[in-house]
Amino acid sequence: MVYAFGLPFETAREEKLPTGRRTAAMSSPILVSVEAGVQRITLNRPDKLNALNPEMHGLLRAALAQADSDASIRCVLLTGAGRGFCAGQDLSEREVKAGAAPIDLSDTISTYYNPLVRRMRALPKPIVCAVNGVAAGAGASIALACDLVLAARSASFVQAFAKIGLVPDSGGTYFLPRLVGRARAMGLALLGEKLGAEDAERWGLVWKCVDDGALAEESARLARALACGPTKGYGLIKRALDASPGNTLDAQLELERDLQREAGFSEDYREGVAAFLAKRRPEFTGR
User: What global pTM score does this model have?
Assistant: First the structure.
């Protein structure tokens, strides 16, 4: 079922809405579908390389709120329409005319980007990102905020901020050094050079690089597998790994103990042990 937030297309067909209205819905900048436990979110401004604007932010956060509250959704798959994943902020909305007061970019970050990244990291369900083309600026940061990133072989990552005198945002300065180390993070941030998908995989920036023609099926297969897994445990794993960089060993050991207690009370743990002892495939419910 595809939504143009929040009108399902199946509903549009049932009510026999005019074709023009259905077309308008299909042109929504964010498309959302849910099938077999996977919520698929597609950035849908291909003519702008899916550059982000306030409307898209609102729809993205609404989709993630749905994923958080709907127990039937157990994995999120994020991708882009057309030849790019996301070119970051739509700069056509950032032009400063001669004599005009400068724009306070911190307002945009506080209002849109930071809440989006926080929502993604706090989601207690895995987020798979299928990078189907260029991921630039905030688009690259948003991809790196996901839990598992698959990139088409022709895809690339560009820290484009320095090219227009800005600082990587949307978590870019947090994720980059933790994924690739300070030296490579500094090179990417200062030089703004394009990093191809194969190098991104070698550097540990993404989980896997796949052939362009295989990206859609590979990412969908991965998302379906996660949607059938122990959702409660996945959320606890995210919490543990996200806390690790700021913790001492002792603090992390204590956190692992607490999270393991919580995991041990889950129905999925009981099912996992029962399936292991019975030598059968577990049937997790996500609880």
Answer: 0.87
